[in-house]
Specification:
Shape: elongated
Order of helices and strands: HHH
Number of helices: 3
Strand content: under 5%
Helix content: over 70%
Radius of gyration: 27 Å
Number of strands: 0
């Protein structure tokens, strides 16, 4: 029973080591490509905001949300004074 447990543990440990090694190998490849100028690692991928930006532009509901937000901010400013 103990031998089986150790074998299972060793198998999981080695799988983790192999996954980590694969990840490191991918990162080294990216670094080499970056060094050679083939890949720009500093270039940012568009985030979720840029994907949805403008999608509510003509929505009356969105205009109402903006109006309510402005009112709330004005109320907070007045309460602080």
């Amino acid at each position: 029973m103990t031998g089986s447990y150790l074998w299972d543990y060793w198998g999981r440990f080695m799988a983790t080591v192999e996954e980590r090694l694969e990840r490191l190998e991918r990162e080294v490849i990216l670094l080499k490509l970056s060094q050679s100028g083939k890949v720009n690692l500093a270039a940012k991928k568009p985030g979720w905001i840029s994907k949805i930006e403008g999608s509510f532009k003509d929505s009356p509901d969105f205009a109402e949300i903006l109006r309510l937000g402005r009112e709330e901010r004005k109320r907070e400013i007045l309460n602080e004074e």
